[in-house]
Design goal:
By secondary structure, the protein is an alpha/beta fold. The chain has five domains: 3-202, P-loop containing nucleotide triphosphate hydrolases (Rossmann fold), CATH 3.40.50; 210-354, P-loop containing nucleotide triphosphate hydrolases (Rossmann fold), CATH 3.40.50.300; 404-513, Arc Repressor Mutant, subunit A; 533-614, HRDC domain (DNA polymerase, domain 1), CATH 1.10.150; 623-726, ATP-dependent DNA helicase RecQ (Arc Repressor Mutant, subunit A), CATH 1.10.10. The chain contains 35 helices and 17 strands. The strands form four sheets. The chain has a seven-stranded parallel beta sheet with strand order 3-4-2-5-6-1-7, with helices on both faces. It has a six-stranded parallel beta sheet with strand order 8-13-12-9-11-10, with helices on both faces. Strand 10 (261-264), helix 12 (270-281) and strand 11 form a beta-alpha-beta unit. Helix 1 (3-15) crosses helix 27. It is globular, with a radius of gyration of 27 Å. Mean pLDDT is 83; it is low at 512-529 and 614-622.
């Protein structure tokens, strides 16, 4: 077997998946080759698997350093679920008694433990260092690595000592992982860990399933929040507040309005905090109202909405917190309430801090304010902040992209902005440039005599919001950049100087008008219409009963996508159940019998004709061809060109792709469908399959009409349908 085949087999055996996501396989290969790696992967991208799987395959024991006690317990429970040996994973932190720690150390010395979670504080204890020096360490995984950097949104000084501690324990490959890091933060992390030569893996920050929206925060914010949560009945959500008092007050308000809500913040007693967290994980309450102390590392994949009651302190924090939503790829709504007063209040909190800290905090706040007040695509702004280009102007899944606005040519304002940045020697931030252009005689403007500049007041007839919009668009377009070392001073790039010599059209979206809120919400509701809803509901009830009996969160047993696949394909044998994505041999053996019994009874009682009974499955001729087809589709190669390059007919190529998708691998062929299938036609075909009893093409063509629909198009959309809803 090749290394790839061995890893796929191990992935299937231990975790029940047939394919890796994104860079997971390459990251695992790197650590198994003994190399350091820096992993930048957004929440929901599968970071934990990057260290969990190699820990099981390598000699020795892996150490995971994490600041999050909740994550440790959560992931240790999950690892034990995938294994028949409870000692396979442990954690050492302040929550354990001395006898419990002694048991952990015994399992480690006996060679049972492959993965040990430690808080950075625990890592620095002499007794732990002495103990670990006698253990073979396979590698170190440093989770939440952004905590190392002062520019990170959750800086923790104790993280600065990790590198020296690992050297004392014993040299081994280091894997640094984070879900949020700007280029500055990334460099900071690598420099501190002495791993500037590490292999860097950057996954896209784009989470297409997440819907971003900013709403004005008014006096009726509580009423609006209650109305929103009620519209999400039966769906789990998190509401973030900045202060502990706000958390307590808001949780109480929601409860008296018949919304099942509990508070969570660092000021609560540990037992009360843990009890409320478990209640949320076990679906005993719908909503957790929390400070940012909650959610980090909580592996609950079916959080359907994240609301920011208060504007966050940084875009990194905002991205990290919204990332709790839709981790299973399903619906994830991210709603933020914004008032300029909140920004001012946060700035006041910084006044007693050292000047350098104030500068950093104020710059981070300005980025957040710019995001909240912008009329640009919110996805594009977020991705740009993390150094990623998003080549679409309209993502179709944020409030700004759902609004109607006009594009205004602001070439003249851009020229004035670039000139002014150069006139002040590129030593001032965006707010100062706007003050100059608008003619604001602030203390800073007059103290530097910038009120005497030629451009002072040159844009006094334009509102400040428009001027800020011009600067934001100029940053995205690459005409301006921010100097991080000088806390965000604006610099004119080479492209900007070229623009000044040869101006071209420069458009900015203005005069935004809201569409109906209900349309926005409705357009972003996602679901799995392919699944049998009655059976799906029965399976969820069974999962909940089993979770109570075993005292584990429901998703630890089977995640929603796995239940949806069961309710779509109706497996009745252990072999069929093992082929369900996210199940695998371990989970099938542990939980399968009860679920199979329910499915069998349901199929018999309702005379169900199963897809397994109808479909003649085809298989790729060999694994090399299958892999090359998957890689070509990842590169967005046109399917007709791909068929020609393989010496295959289009029909044969579709058979291969269907076989890949039916075996549980998710493929995205939207790029090809968008080129060849009319959007209305695609919608009609999807609607047919959503209500069809089976996916037989002949029956579909008879129903849709041979004269009105192309069979090739129907097969393409069926592939998309199965890939998105079944895998």
């Amino acid at each position: 077997m090749t290394r790839h085949e061995e890893l796929i087999a191990a992935l299937q055996h231990h975790f029940g998946f047939d394919a890796f996501k994104g860079n997971q396989e390459a990251i695992i290969q790197t650590v198994m080759e003994g190399k350091d790696s820096f992993v930048l992967m957004p929440t929901g991208g599968g970071k934990s698997l990057c260290y969990q799987l190699p820990s099981l395959l390598m000699d020795g024991m892996a150490i995971v350093i994490s600041p999050l006690i909740a994550l440790m317990k959560n992931q240790v429970d999950a690892m034990r679920n995938f294994s028949e040996e409870d000692g396979v994973a442990h954690f050492i932190n302040s929550s354990l008694s001395r006898p419990e720690i002694a048991q952990v150390k015994k399992d480690v010395l006996d060679g049972k433990t492959k993965l040990l979670y430690l808080a950075p504080e625990s890592l620095t204890k002499a007794e732990n260092i002495d103990f670990l020096q006698g253990v073979k360490i396979s590698f170190y995984a440093i989770d939440e690595a952004h905590c190392i950097s002062e520019w990170g949104h959750d800086f923790r000084p104790e993280y600065r000592n990790i590198q020296s501690m690992t050297e004392r324990i014993g040299r081994a490959p280091i894997m640094a992982l984070t879900a949020t890091a700007t280029p500055k933060v990334q460099h900071d992390i690598q420099k501190n860990l002495c791993m500037l030569d590490a292999v860097v893996f950057k996954s896209s920050f784009n989470r297409p399933n997440l819907y971003y929206e900013v709403r004005p925060k008014t006096d009726d914010v509580d009423k609006e929040l209650i109305r929103y949560i009620r519209s999400m009945e039966g769906k789990s959500g998190i509401v973030y507040c900045l202060s502990r008092k706000s958390v307590e007050d808001l949780a109480a308000t929601l409860r008296v309005n018949n919304i099942s809500a509990l508070p969570y913040h660092a000021g609560m007693a540990p037992l009360a905090r843990a009890t409320n967290q478990d209640a949320f994980l076990m679906e005993k309450c719908q909503v957790i109202v929390a400070t940012i102390a909650f959610g980090m590392g909580i592996d609950k994949p079916d959080v359907r909405f994240v609301v920011h009651y208060d504007i966050p302190k940084s875009l990194e924090g905002y991205y990290q917190e919204t990332g709790r939503a839709g981790r299973d790829g399903g619906e994830g709504q991210c709603v933020c309430f914004y008032s300029p007063k909140d920004i001012e209040r946060l700035r006041k909190f910084q006044r007693d801090k050292p000047v350098s800290e104030q500068e950093i905090s104020n710059q981070l706040l300005f980025e957040t304010q710019s995001y909240a007040e912008s009329s640009f695509c919110r996805r594009k702004l977020l991705l740009h902040y993390f150094g990623e280009e998003y080549d679409q102007d309209n993502c179709g899944n944020c409030d700004n992209c759902k609004k109607v606005y006009r594009m205004a040519n602001e070439s003249e304002l851009l020229m004035l902005t670039l000139e002014t940045v150069l006139q002040v020697n590129e030593k001032f931030k965006a707010e100062h440039i706007v003050d100059i252009l608008h003619g604001n005689r602030t203390a800073a403007v007059t103290s530097y005599n910038h009120n005497e500049l030629e451009n002072f007041g040159a844009a006094e007839d334009d509102d400040e919001q428009t001027l800020h919009a011009v600067i934001r668009q100029a940053l995205i377009a690459g005409y301006l950049k921010k100097d991080i070392e000088s806390y965000g001073d604006l610099k004119v790039t080479a492209e900007g100087k070229k623009y000044m010599k040869h101006p071209i059209l420069f458009e900015v979206p203005l005069e935004v008008h809201d569409e109906e809120e209900e349309e926005v919400v409705e357009a972003n509701m996602t679901g799995s219409a392919a699944a049998d809803e009655v059976l799906f509901s029965i399976l969820k009830d069974l999962r909940k009963k089993l979770s109570k009996r075993l005292n584990v969160p429901p998703f630890v047993i089977f995640q929603d996508p796995s239940l949806e696949a069961i309710a779509t394909t109706y497996p009745v044998t252990m072999e069929e159940l093992q082929n369900i994505p996210g199940v695998g041999a371990g989970k099938a053996k542990r939980y399968g019998e009860e679920f199979l019994r329910v499915v069998k009874e349901y199929v018999e009682d309702n005379d169900i004709i199963r897809p397994e009974d109808l479909r003649v499955r085809t298989v790729a001729h060999d694994s090399t061809r299958k892999i090359s087809i998957i890689q070509a589709i990842d590169r967005r190669v046109a399917l007709d060109d791909l068929a020609e390059s393989k010496g295959m007919s289009m029909d044969e190529m579709l058979e291969e792709i269907e076989a890949i998708v039916y075996s549980g691998t998710k493929l995205n062929i939207n790029y090809f469908i968008d080129e060849v299938v009319d959007p209305d036609e695609e919608e009609d075909i999807i609607e047919y399959f959503q209500h069809a009893e089976n996916d037989n093409i002949k029956l579909a063509m008879e129903k849709l009409g041979y004269d009105d629909y192309d069979e090739l198009h129907v097969r393409l959309v069926r592939i998309k349908f199965h890939s998105e809803l079944g895998n």
